[in-house]
Structure formats: structure tokens, C-alpha cells
Write a structure and sequence with these properties.
The protein is built from five helices and no strands. It has about 120 residues and is an all-alpha fold.
Length: about 120
């Protein structure tokens, strides 16, 4: 937490930080926060600005680990999809993993053999 915040404000900001995952818009969160904490709308918006700073700090700290975590989740999802016979989901997960490692559609298309079929008139 930021040291310049008073203890009461820190507590308010922590409560608002916890509530941000409830799926409400930022405006709805701020208005609800103002009502629950009995503070002005301007104070609630300042609290929201502090929450956004904390979220940015969290994101910067987690960003380095995010790729490994996402790849682990993709691998787990792929295995679960195969077990349940959800081949379309498994295929989509493999495509996603391929994009991460640099396998693009263009690369696959360039490397794939080209098959040309032509039908000629049967002329007797």
C-alpha cells in the first residue's frame, strides 16, 4: 500500500479493491462505494484512482509470470478437452499454443504442400 494514505483511507481502498471483481462497472463501484463508506462521490473517485494504481502495480509484478501461467492453463485445458472428447476445443487450444510459440497460419500455409486437381473433358 502507499505510505501517504491514512489508515482509514487504506481500509476503504482495500475494501474497494476487493469489490472490483464483482463485475460492476467502475462508475457503479464508485457510487456504491460512496454510499457504503458514507463518503462523497469525489472521495470515492479518489479511492478508485488509488485502487487503479494498486492494480497497475499488481499487473506489472505478475506480467513476467503470466505467460508461463497461461501456457500451463492451456495445457491443462487441452488435456481436459481430450479426456472429454471435446476435439474442437482441443484444436482451438493447440492453435492458441501455436500462436504463442510463433507458429502462424501463414507459416503453416507456406510449409503445407499444395494440391491442385483439374478435371478434363472426356473427349472420345
Amino acid at each position: 500500500m502507499q505510505p501517504e494514505l491514512t489508515e482509514a483511507k487504506q481500509a476503504r481502498v482495500r475494501r474497494l479493491y476487493k469489490r472490483q471483481l464483482e463485475g460492476l462497472s467502475s462508475t457503479a463501484l464508485v457510487y456504491d462505494h460512496a454510499e457504503k463508506e458514507q463518503v462523497s462521490i469525489q472521495t470515492a473517485w479518489r479511492d478508485w484512482a488509488d485502487v487503479k494504481k494498486i492494480v497497475d502495480e499488481d499487473w506489472k509484478a505478475d506480467r513476467e509470470n503470466m505467460l508461463a501461467r497461461l501456457q500451463h492453463m492451456r495445457t491443462k485445458l487441452f488435456n481436459q478437452a481430450l479426456k472429454k472428447g471435446q476435439l474442437q476445443t482441443a484444436s482451438q487450444v493447440l492453435d492458441s499454443i501455436g500462436r504463442v510459440i510463433g507458429e502462424s497460419v501463414e507459416t503453416v500455409n507456406i510449409q503445407a504442400p499444395e494440391l491442385k486437381i483439374s478435371i478434363e473433358d472426356k473427349g472420345d
